[in-house]
Design goal:
Blueprint lengths: L4 H8 L1 E5 L3 H8 L9 H14 L8 H17 L11 E5 L2 E8 L2 E8 L2 E5 L9 H6 L41 E8 L11 H24 L5 E13 L3 E11 L10 E10 L3 E3 L3 E3 L2 E4 L2 E3 L3 H12 L4
Parallel strand pairs: 1-9, 6-7
Antiparallel strand pairs: 2-5, 3-4, 5-6, 7-8, 8-9, 10-13, 11-12
């Protein structure tokens, strides 16, 4: 992706807001929810994924990254005792998405595997007010002139303009609302992984694609400002560094740069821990660095949990 998130913003007609939206940050900061009670368990789960799960001396990323994700989801599910509506969620793997839209005079399509998608029986409520949505009319989208913003996109012949949420949302499927996408960049070789900026761009494109396909399923294909915006979240990680995103689709009228824009909140490059010492470091028969996890960041864990709880709490 030649310009990462900046390019994705233009393609999806989206205004970027740094940090988490108040609706999510409020969950992180609310001591009454008792999120801090789970911090010790989360740190233990990091140790399990990085140090104990595999018989290998130093587990590879392709092993520990998925294990860490499953461990964190397990902790999130523990909150369903306090919030029973959390049981009305379903994780779907290898869901395909296809969404088509026109931008200026260019027909665009995002399609492919959506990573792991958590679906919900109820949609996430809008995170931006009607006033905030209307205020986006004043926002000027960045252009890349003289470079075309589609310079590095793959050109294909489109024989059918698909808007399809895949097999995840068949008619009558009770968990019919996309909630959160999870992208695990678990390739062991660094060059095979998306860099953080590329990952954020991918997260934005797929959150947008899922929101657009859902909006068209609900409201038809006519371009319009949505009375009820569609919110889709995304979390990306390589097993240590986390990217958090909340996307709000305000409009399906994407052709021109004028009018209401969509909104995305991004909290970038949040470490869950600083270092995993798989084997102790010994110098002259003295242990200088014991095995273990150092620099655990409880706030990063709480952000993961807050996005999971969002729409319920």
């Amino acid at each position: 992706v030649f310009a990462g998130v900046r390019q994705a913003q233009w393609l999806t007609k989206t205004k970027l807001v740094e940090g988490l939206p108040p609706a999510v940050q409020g969950i992180v900061d609310n001591p009454a929810l008792g999120l801090q009670e789970l911090e010790e368990r989360a740190e233990h789960m990091v140790s399990h994924a990085r140090l104990w799960h595999s018989a290998e001396v130093a587990p590879r990323r392709e092993q520990y990254c998925p294990v860490l994700f499953e461990n964190l989801i397990h902790i999130c599910r523990l909150m369903s005792g306090k919030y029973p509506s959390l049981t009305k969620r379903m994780l779907a793997r290898n869901c395909r998405i296809a969404a088509t839209w026109e931008r200026e005079s260019i027909l665009l399509q995002v399609r492919g595997l959506s990573g792991v998608l958590m679906n919900s029986m109820t949609p996430i409520p809008p995170v931006a007010s009607k006033e905030e949505i209307l205020a986006t009319k004043e926002h000027v989208l960045e252009t890349f002139y003289p470079i075309a913003p589609t310079i590095d996109l793959q050109e294909v012949n489109v024989y059918k303009e698909l808007n399809d949420t895949g097999q995840c949302f068949r008619d009558g499927y009770p968990y019919s609302h996309p909630h959160t996408l999870f992208f695990l960049e678990s390739a062991n070789v660094r060059t095979d992984r998306f860099r953080p900026e590329q990952l954020r761009a991918k997260m934005l494109m797929f959150a947008f694609g899922n929101a657009l396909a859902k909006a068209k399923a609900l409201h038809g294909n006519d371009p319009k400002v949505l009375e009820q915006p569609v919110v889709v979240q995304s979390i990306g990680t390589d097993g240590q560094l986390f990217q958090f995103m909340v996307f709000q689709l305000n409009t399906t009228d994407l052709v021109s740069n004028d009018g209401v824009k969509n909104l995305v909140w991004i909290d970038s490059d949040q470490n869950l821990y600083e270092r995993a010492q798989c084997v102790p470091e010994v110098k002259k028969r003295v242990v200088t660095k014991p095995a273990g996890i150092s620099g655990f960041q409880p706030d990063t864990f709480k952000k993961f949990l807050a996005l999971y709880l969002h729409g319920t709490v």
